[in-house]
């Protein structure tokens, strides 16, 4: 049975594995391996994730996980970016588990928590040409707003992110 719950330190390795595996599966043909490795090193280390599951703030609400028989098969997180605006910062699934509704359940968990914090609107950034994420978010009512530089690019990289928004 799959459960959606707030993550604890015991989930850190599973969160890292899901995020890293899904990051490669999603972006392996869209982004350079140098960029992917840089983002993994910044965001998906065990140490960082443990810190993030034990510390919450208005701007970071912590991780939610989808757990199947004690194995993390999905992870998502969000936070408030202003008084009335929430953001989905990350949402990844085990690449073998797509199509089971886990993404929707994780998005709902993050969104409901953002609503509890007062969010009336929600934002998400999706890498341009991400044909896995874009249809998912559009099906959930997110509307494309604009294009901007992808997070963390360096000189010589020209990756773009699409900003999406929905009213809650």
UniProtKB/TrEMBL annotation:
Residue ranges constituting the N-acetyltransferase domain according to the UniProt record: 2-168
Keyword Transferase in annotation: yes
PROSITE patterns referenced in this protein's UniProt entry, alphabetically: GNAT (PS51186)
CDD domains: NAT_SF
A UniProt-annotated Pfam family: Acetyltransf_1
SUPFAM superfamilies: Acyl-CoA N-acyltransferases (Nat)
The protein's name: GNAT superfamily N-acetyltransferase
């Amino acid at each position: 049975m799959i459960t959606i719950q707030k993550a604890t330190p015991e989930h850190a390795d599973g969160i890292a594995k899901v995020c890293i595996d899904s990051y490669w599966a999603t972006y392996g043909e869209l982004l350079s391996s140098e960029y992917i490795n840089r983002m993994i090193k910044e965001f998906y280390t065990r140490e960082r994730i443990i810190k993030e599951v034990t510390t919450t703030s208005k701007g970071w609400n912590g991780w939610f996980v989808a757990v199947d028989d004690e194995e993390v098969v999905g992870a998502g997180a969000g936070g408030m970016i202003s008084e009335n605006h929430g953001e989905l910062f990350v949402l990844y699934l085990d690449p073998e588990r797509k199509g089971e509704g886990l993404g929707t359940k994780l998005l709902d968990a993050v969104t409901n928590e953002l609503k509890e914090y007062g969010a009336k609107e929600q934002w998400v950034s999706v890498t341009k040409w991400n044909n896995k994420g874009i249809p998912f978010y559009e099906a959930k009512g997110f509307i494309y707003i604009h294009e901007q530089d992808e997070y963390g690019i360096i000189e010589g990289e020209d990756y773009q992110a699409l900003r999406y928004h929905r009213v809650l």
